[in-house]
Design a protein that fits this description.
Shape: elongated
Helix content: over 70%
Number of helices: 7
Distance between the termini: 60 Å
Radius of gyration: 19 Å
Number of strands: 0
Largest sheet: none
Structural class: mainly alpha
């Protein structure tokens, strides 16, 4: 089998560190691409597995938020909330974290909490269409109960 690792051994410690960092970035990018393709084809569990690998290689708020969204669709609320919390910790101004958390609360019929999350997203970007729709939907569902 062909060795896909770069030959970084002959480099200085600083150069070696940069070499491996670049390799990790490529591996993360491949895992993220695989997750996107699996998601496009409707394979949520496999997409979640690829995203978990990408997160381990190089965690970002975008990856954690996407994982939270997918875990929510899989009915794995605890894992979804944990991933969304990591996303918020890494990038508190990443509005989609709050939209995805609002969607999760909506699916759990926690309409007031859902609206709070959508409003939080709107405080970052007042024209976020998903958050605007979410606020309206949460209000309609809350009034229907």
């Amino acid at each position: 089998m062909k060795n896909l690792l770069p030959d970084c051994q002959e480099l200085s410690p600083t150069e070696r560190s940069e070499c491996y960092r670049a390799y990790a970035e490529q591996a993360r990018s491949c895992a993220e691409s695989a997750a996107t393709e699996e998601l496009r084809q409707g394979y949520l569990k496999t997409a979640a597995d690829w995203l978990k690998l990408a997160e381990e290689l190089q965690p970002t708020a975008v990856l954690y938020a996407e994982s939270g969204r997918i875990y929510g669709k899989l009915g794995r609320a605890e894992e979804a909330f944990a991933a969304l919390q990591k996303a918020e910790t890494l990038a508190p101004s990443f509005e989609q974290t709050y939209v995805f958390r609002g969607n999760l609360y909506l699916s759990l019929q926690e309409f007031d909490l859902a609206e709070q999350q959508y409003r939080r997203a709107l405080s970052i970007n007042a024209s976020n269409p998903s958050a605007i729709r979410g606020v309206n939907l949460a209000r309609r569902r809350a009034s229907a109960t």
